[in-house]
Sequence to fold (82 residues):
Amino acid sequence: MDSLKRKVLPRRFSIKNGDTDYHSYEEADEETQKQLEKELAEAEKHGWAQGKPGSFLNKLIQHGNKKTEEEFAKAEKAEGKR
Fold:
């Protein structure tokens, strides 16, 4: 879970904003950081690897997983064209 904290907490965004840019490091929101720390602690307590289902933390992880899958798909296509 510590590696998860290192990946998620440094990101800057607002939990209040519905159209959040998860990769915008310039927008720091202290309330969001506190909420994520709370959700991380709850996830550790209950053994949820990706946060409580439906939580903001869970949505962040799903967003990251989707981006990773898209990058892998692009890499496969590039390799196939060679």
